[in-house]
Write a structure and sequence with these properties.
Layout lengths: L1 H20 L8 H5 L19 E4 L6 E6 L4 E4 L3 H28 L3 H4 L4 H9 L2 H15 L1 H20 L7 H6 L8 H15 L4 H11 L1 H7 L48 E7 L10 E9 L1 E2 L4 E6 L4 E6 L8 E4 L2 E7 L5 E5 L9 E4 L2 E4 L1 E7 L7 E7 L5 E3 L12 E5 L7 H10 L3 H8 L7 E7 L4 E6 L14 E2 L18 E3 L5 E4 L22 H11 L5 H8 L5 H12 L3 H5 L3 H8 L11 H19 L12 H10 L17 H18 L9 H5 L1 E5 L9 E3 L15 E3 L2 E5 L5 E5 L17 H5 L4 E2 L11 E9 L1
Parallel strand pairs: 1-29, 3-7, 6-23, 11-20
Antiparallel strand pairs: 2-3, 2-29, 4-5, 4-22, 5-25, 5-26, 7-8, 8-9, 9-10, 10-18, 11-17, 12-13, 14-15, 16-17, 18-19, 19-21, 23-24, 26-27, 27-28
Helix pairs in contact: 3-7, 3-9, 6-7, 6-9, 10-11, 12-13, 16-20, 19-21
Length: about 800
């Protein structure tokens, strides 16, 4: 009955939600939405209501059995991989078709076709950044070099299309009805676009913001505020010596282009996106076998980014989290190994200032010569309007993304993007090989095909090995290269090749008994190649390493507890100093009650505590007041991380960056500490939940939104602890979207949870049925299931050859 009530409520909010999300001229026909026979009423069902027991699929070579457990997780049993992936495509589409297609439309730059004019800027940017361009290059590579993987991708597409062909107007997923369009045929190209989208989400840089900052404040500020190897460097992989002879990198005598200032900054990676993974050896576990844990941190959305699945052939069985639109399991385990991934945050995107010969832009300057460019005309369909024609110029670096026609507000700029993801690569093969891998050598071979985005692959095996590899295709750069906008006319700014895959940082079975990564600096200082990112993490990783080093006789439950760890290391290292610098007047007047709460805090950011909210407010106001004092001329610049600013507050409180040029006095860090506290008191006095009812969960307001955010009835608010730079990295709209712990052994044991459900249908009880467990820190068992196991079966579907 609650779903009937839900849809009655939805009917009253529907038009408002659509009106907020979509141009009014492109509203779907109301008769179609409210049609009692094929409108949104037909989506008020759950998948276990009258399930189909048999389906005929053209192209199968034999029957495929699919057992759905009590959580609607499919367990697919096929006699060949081709049948397996066709079935995976069919089953995934049956639950997540709209999500799959919508994400690809967004990545391909085609959202305007279904939501109208408001998506045009987004669509132009995705096309200009080369997501379709990179996908086409990868498709050509597969056609020429790996037809076997391409055949598996085609089988997956055939399964998706078989489901689409069955859909009547009544059975269309709800979002198609709201947006008034129908699904297209799936292709391997779409899977490649989806993988390009993941690369774009997890890659980023701030070249122009760094350029502005250097031009405004000079190199000394850059060196102090953004050290490339901080004092507390705790790398993913540390070596006293490296077992290879490095490639030679020539340091050229170059001058950066006279780039001026930029009011628009290139969009970078979404702040906070990251992950944790680790593996502990059998020497540190109660069972004597390794345990692996992984919890990727990405946007919290409904439908969930992840889709749990088991895939079985006579040769292997694998289980874990898949990505709707891609083949196989992305983070998971089989009978012999387990693996998990985190973002390595390496700088693999660089920007070049292009000088064209004339307004035609048909030639550009390179090493004193005029080189022909490639001009492509791109047609973007817009729902309810005429097509938009965009002209994109391609150089040998890559596409000219930003120019006088796009984003920099008419300025005569031409910035070309060079990105490792544009080139030929075979990430899909990496996961297919991982799914069937049995040992460390298989793991290394599988990930060798992985180019972008750069990832830290954690590994554990039943044989007892644990390992970590920082994997990707990394440019050979001279020190500092790629930090600022570079001169595209000078070949000295070119990458000097790529770091050999064999030289990527990796370790196996370290003496400490564990490997771990949490988006921190990838390598120790003696690594012979230049490594840069300004978004490495320096709190989660140290907390994880500290806890793992202290633990012995480890159990899976203790690994779950570590994934849920809410200890705020930033607060523990910073708050005592901040409290010591407070003016004594605060202890006697306004804010004294907040001081007491902070003094008593144990630094665990639990959902029901007030102190984490107070600390976050204080720190944010401190940052805002300080950064607002910098005379940045209204230009976008980079700001130091929590880690670097906290270190400077304690170690160099009289640094020049703390002195406001707008006053005659000399400010130090103490001034901004007190100013931030005063602003926090003001905020809390006005905050509706202040006083005894203030809690971290209410202040943080973690919300799991639908992919179309203004469709509020399709989202869920959750009350959870944790936060940025905390192992349990639950923020307001991103966090651990998949928590997994795998205990290897004769019969591997898997445990996982994610904030959503298997179904993409908001009318299904399986749309968000796992959110409560995720919110409460619980896990479900995801052990490998034999086809003969009849326990907790929701229903069974057999896919037969047609």
């Amino acid at each position: 009955m609650k779903y009937v009530a839900f849809f009655f409520s939805l009917s009253f909010t529907l038009l408002v939600a659509i009106g907020l999300s979509i141009n009014l001229s492109s509203l779907p026909p109301l008769a179609s939405i409210f049609d009692p026979f094929k409108g949104f009423w037909q989506n008020a069902y759950s998948e276990d209501r009258d399930p189909v027991s048999e389906v005929d699929l053209e192209g199968l070579s034999g029957p495929v059995e699919v057992l759905f457990d009590e959580h609607l997780i499919p367990h697919i049993y096929a006699n060949s991989e081709k049948d397996l992936f066709m079935a995976q495509g069919y089953i995934t589409a049956s639950h997540r078709l709209w999500q799959m297609e919508f994400q690809v439309l967004a990545a391909e730059g085609r959202l305007s076709e279904v939501v109208g004019q408001l998506a045009l800027t987004h669509d132009r940017e995705m096309r200009r950044k080369g997501l379709p361009f990179g996908a086409r290059n990868k498709l050509t590579y597969l056609q020429e070099e790996d037809p076997e993987t391409l055949a598996m991708m085609q089988a997956y597409a055939d399964g998706v299309n078989a489901f689409i062909s069955e859909l009547s107007a009544r059975e269309l997923p709800l979002e198609y009805k709201l947006l008034d369009y129908r699904p297209e045929q799936w292709t391997p190209y779409k899977s490649l676009v989806f993988l390009m989208n993941m690369a774009e989400i997890l890659s980023g840089d701030r070249d122009l913001a760094y350029t502005n900052t250097r031009n405004l404040f000079g190199g000394d500020w850059i060196a102090s505020l953004f050290p490339e190897t901080p004092a507390d460097l705790l790398p993913v992989v540390s070596r006293t010596a490296w077992d290879f002879v490095p490639e030679t990198v020539e340091m050229p005598d170059v001058v950066y282009p006279d780039s001026g200032f930029y009011e628009k900054v290139l969009p970078g990676k979404e702040p906070g996106f990251g992950s944790n993974n680790w593996a502990v050896s059998g020497d540190k576990t109660a069972s004597g076998y390794p345990i692996l844990a992984n919890d990727p941190h990405l946007a919290l959305n409904l439908p969930s980014l992840w889709y749990a699945v088991q895939l079985s052939t006579p040769e292997y069985t694998v289980k874990g989290a898949s990505l709707p639109g891609a083949l196989g399991v992305i983070s998971g385990f089989n009978e012999d190994i387990a693996w998990g991934i985190t973002n390595a945050d390496r700088d693999v995107m660089d920007w070049y200032k292009i000088t064209f010969r004339d307004k035609s832009r048909s030639e550009y300057l390179y090493n004193g010569q005029w080189i022909k460019s490639n001009i492509q005309v791109d047609t973007i369909g817009i729902k309810g309007r005429e097509d938009f024609i965009d002209t994109v110029v391609y150089t040998h670096y890559g596409p000219v993304v930003y120019d006088k026609n796009f984003l920099p507000e008419g300025k005569a700029v031409n910035f070309a993007l060079k990105w490792t993801a544009h080139g030929p690569s075979n990430e899909q093969r990496s996961f297919l090989e991982l799914n069937r891998a049995t040992n460390y050598e298989d793991y290394l071979e599988a990930i060798s095909h992985f180019t972008a985005p750069a990832q830290n692959f954690a590994f554990a095996s039943r044989e007892g090995d644990i390992a970590m590899t920082v994997q990707g295709k990394f440019p050979l750069k001279w020190t500092g290269q790629g930090k600022y906008l570079m001169d595209g006319s000078n070949s000295a700014f070119e990458w000097q090749g790529y770091i050999p895959t064999a030289h990527n940082a990796k370790e196996i079975n370290p003496d400490r008994g564990f490997v771990a990564s949490a988006n921190q600096h990838p390598v120790s200082r003696n690594y012979p190649y230049y490594v840069f990112s300004d978004q490495f993490e320096y709190y989660r990783n140290r907390r994880i390493n500290e806890r793992l080093a202290a633990m012995n006789q480890i159990t899976p439950d203790e690994m779950k507890e570590l994934q849920l760890d809410n200890y705020d290391l930033h607060a523990a290292e910073t708050l005592p100093y901040l409290l010591d610098q407070l003016d004594s007047a605060f202890y006697r007047g306004p804010g004294s009650n907040w001081i007491e709460a902070l003094q008593e805090w144990d630094y665990y950011a639990e959902a029901d505590q007030a102190a984490p909210a107070l600390f976050k407010s204080w720190w944010q106001h401190l940052e805002q007041e300080l950064f607002d004092s910098w005379q940045n001329k209204g230009l976008p610049i980079v700001y130091p991380s929590k880690y670097n600013l906290s270190r400077l507050i304690r170690s160099e409180p009289a640094g020049l960056w703390f002195d406001s040029p707008e006053t005659s006095s000399r400010e130090t860090a103490v001034h901004w500490i007190n100013q931030g506290f005063a602003e926090m008191v003001t905020e809390m006095d006005a905050y509706p939940e202040a006083g005894d009812t203030l809690t971290w969960a209410k202040y943080k307001e973690t919300y799991i939104a639908h992919l179309i955010p203004n469709l509020r009835p399709f989202g869920r608010k959750v009350l959870v602890g944790g936060g940025k730079n905390i192992v349990n990295a639950s923020s307001s709209d991103w966090g651990p979207g998949w928590r997994m712990v795998v205990a290897l052994g004769p019969e591997p044991q898997g445990f996982a949870i994610y904030p959503g459900g298997q179904s993409g249908n908001p009318g299904s009880k399986y749309y968000d049925n796992l959110i409560d467990a995720w919110e409460n820190g619980e896990y479900i068992s995801i052990h490998l299931r034999a086809k003969t196991n009849a326990e907790n079966i929701l229903f069974k579907t057999t896919l037969n050859p047609d």
